[in-house]
C-alpha cells in the first residue's frame, strides 16, 4: 500500500558567497503504509551533486525502509575530489537527523546534525523579476488558489 513519485530532471543551486554553481538530481518520494503501522513519507533512490567550478561531486543513496525491521530516512553518500575514482569521505546516517562522516585519513566526525541547524530565511527574487518558467512564477496561480 504505497504511492511513488519519480522525480525527473535536475536542480541548480548557486552559492553566491563562493561563486559556486551546483547541478543536482533528486530522490524519489514515497507515501507508504503497512497494515499495522501509521502512514509515513520517505525518500528513496540515487542522486548526484556536481560543482562545475571545483570539480567536486557526490553520489547519494536514500535508502527506503525494509518491509520488516530497519530504520526510516537512512542515507549513505560518497564525496569525490576532482578526477578521483575513490571517495575521500563517506557519509551515513539519517537525512532528517544526524549524519556521520568517515574520511580516508581515518578521522570520524559528525557531518551535520539537521536538528540543531538554524532556520535560514530564503532569498527569492520578486515575481516580476523572475523568468516565466522559474518555479514561483510558474506556480503562482496554484499557490494563490491553495492558500
UniProtKB/TrEMBL annotation:
Gene3D superfamilies: 2.40.160.120
Protein name, as recorded: OSBL9 protein
InterPro entries reported for this sequence: OSBP_sf (IPR037239), Oxysterol-bd (IPR000648)
Organism: Smutsornis africanus
GO terms for MF: sterol binding
Gene Ontology annotations for the cellular component aspect, listed alphabetically: cytosol; Golgi apparatus; membrane
Pfam families documented for this protein: Oxysterol_BP
Amino acid at each position: 500500500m504505497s504511492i511513488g513519485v519519480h522525480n525527473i530532471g535536475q536542480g541548480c543551486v548557486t552559492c553566491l558567497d563562493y561563486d559556486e554553481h551546483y547541478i543536482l538530481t533528486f530522490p524519489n518520494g514515497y507515501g507508504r503504509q503497512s497494515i499495522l503501522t501509521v502512514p509515513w513519507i520517505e525518500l528513496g533512490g540515487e542522486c548526484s551533486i556536481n560543482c562545475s567550478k571545483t570539480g567536486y561531486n557526490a553520489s547519494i543513496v536514500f535508502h527506503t525502509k525494509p518491509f520488516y525491521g530497519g530504520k526510516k530516512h537512512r542515507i549513505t553518500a560518497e564525496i569525490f575530489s576532482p578526477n578521483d575514482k575513490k571517495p575521500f569521505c563517506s557519509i551515513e546516517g539519517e537525512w532528517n537527523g544526524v549524519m556521520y562522516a568517515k574520511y580516508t585519513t581515518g578521522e570520524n566526525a559528525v557531518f551535520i546534525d539537521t536538528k540543531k541547524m538554524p532556520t535560514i530565511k530564503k532569498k527569492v527574487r520578486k515575481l516580476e523579476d523572475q523568468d516565466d518558467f522559474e518555479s514561483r512564477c510558474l506556480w503562482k496561480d496554484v499557490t494563490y488558489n491553495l492558500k
